Amino acid sequence: MSAVFDDLLGDFDFDAPSTDFDYATKEGWREFVEFVAQRPLSITLAEYDVLDSSERALFNIARERYMTLGARVATPSLRQVAVAIRHAMTDNRSPDASKSGVIISGRAGLGKTTAVQEFGRAFERARRQRATASQRNLIPVAYVPVPTHATAKTMITKLADFYAIPYTRNANYELLLSRVSHVMRECRTELVIVDDIHRLDLHYRGNEQVADALKELSERCPGTMVYAGVDVARNGLFWGSRGEQIMARFELVKFDTYGTVETADAAVWGRILVDLEDSLCLIAHPDGEILTVAAELRDLSRGSIGRVARAVRRGARRAIEQHTERLDLDDVLASLARIREAEGWIEEEENRPSPRPKPGRPARAT
Length: 366
Known about the structure:
Layout: H1 6-9, H2 26-34, H3 45-49, H4 53-70, H5 76-91, E1 101-106, H6 112-130, E2 141-145, H7 152-163, H8 173-186, E3 191-195, H9 205-220, E4 224-230, H10 240-249, E5 250-255, H11 263-279, H12 294-301, H13 305-321, H14 329-351
Parallel strand pairs: 1-4, 1-5, 2-3, 3-4
Helix pairs in contact: 5-6, 7-8, 7-9, 12-14, 13-14
């Protein structure tokens, strides 16, 4: 049976280096902040052909790392996030003002997590460049996801884990909160990114306590809170009195899909696609060719640059493997069409009424 997959596994690079950051720890976050993937030097197809196997492998690894980790595709949404966070951080310098924050919301796959991580990285790099030699313990940014089935204690525990603060299983909430807020002040944390905030549906009392814990933390430490999540309004974050408090203190940045109907929208979508195409570093791919299918890419992806990026990068890998060094745009469109078809099937399955449970057998007469 294994022979069935020989064509897929025969040339698979099992030893290729991978980069997997543990963002939810200070060590992993620092690794992410300091990681640099340089763009490989441009070469011709003739120069590529004369490389020996090891040189070619190194060149391809550099391309892979750059296209997935090194390239920065600037989007209007990313800029909007940066401006909103900067305003909130400036507001919070005033001792008389209530703490401001930012919430990033939108459909899945629109780049919300990427946006907050990229801004966090840029902010920490800028802050460290200005730090003095005495500020070696500086941790300007903290990143934590909301745990599933969160409680006030598990939420604060996540932050304790980020800073590697020791605690016992029996440590109570107040003790954990006190230790975490103290360490955040000592480390001069200025930005606290809380991801997966859509898990806090405030219709449930337990989640209300988590929201209270985050509010109390923000009042005890100087850091600006940034929440990111999927469709947070629909998922209950703004429900009730606590939701009203969140809306009053946080600026909402909504991520939406990109369009191509209006001229301005089409121009933005086109610039993003060209940046994405350029990041692939394909040797024989004509500049700007991706624009010939810009509208189709938008329709099939529903305006999600994340989905387009995945399809395009897979196409680039195939172009490298097949030695064409040119993106097969028809193949990219077909890949997105398959994803769209699968989504339609999922929606159909979700809307299909559940079958009635089979009636149980009658009890035996005794």
